[in-house]
């Protein structure tokens, strides 16, 4: 019955202390762990485009995975490594490229150069200030690195040098110096991984659905998210003894979500998935699915 299906998603408890901010653009305000924000979607997508955020979908939730991705970007770009997407980090993410070339060379300036200098410094080849200027000192440091690695010594940071610096992660620096045109997509679609293929603990649960589109429903979840003003968020209600609150999860047949709710009817291996309409909640019905706890 509809009433029963939508009533199981309880509105209780407190999970996240950070407020929801949904109207500003990336860089207009600081993003950090625990936030659920439209700008987090943009942050994750931008990180994904540059090779730092590795999940197939953006979630809008700033959890451990997003924090680690931001830290990785900050380290590679000579920024303070704190996992917080503040103004400088946003500027680095959104800056225009250095040019159409994929090679860093004498005369280049910017965050990509800072990242190069930072990496050379970490590896013992650069001992000066990380200033984002590809001057003679940086050229000499690159040459010293190239000589030590047995590759062409030309002072240019091209694909060969990038691979030697970062190994399999070399694409990250390369992406930073590409043109602003979006990367060409491959013609073959990428098939989403199943719950069994995703990293993390997987549990089998019985899943029903709920909505905020009902009489007497406040639409405010356990973490303070307003489902009526944010109808596209992916939220599930859980038993915290089985799936910890504040966890990012992947629900078979539903996608990435956050365990943001709990309630009396959700006990043991039971979850409720949120849908913005009664029709969608009813269509979900009751089914057995696998849930992978990602962080």
Automatic annotation (TrEMBL):
One Pfam entry name: 3D
Superkingdom of origin organism: Bacteria
Gene3D superfamilies, per the entry: PGBD-like superfamily/PGBD, RlpA-like domain
InterPro entries to which the protein is assigned, alphabetical: 3D_dom (IPR010611), Peptidoglycan-bd-like (IPR002477), PGBD-like_sf (IPR036365), PGBDSf (IPR036366), Resuscitation_pf_RpfB (IPR051933), RlpA-like_sf (IPR036908)
Domain 3D: 234-294
UniProt KW keywords: Signal
Peptidoglycan binding-like domain: residues covered: 38-93, 110-165
Protein name, UniProt field: Peptidoglycan-binding protein
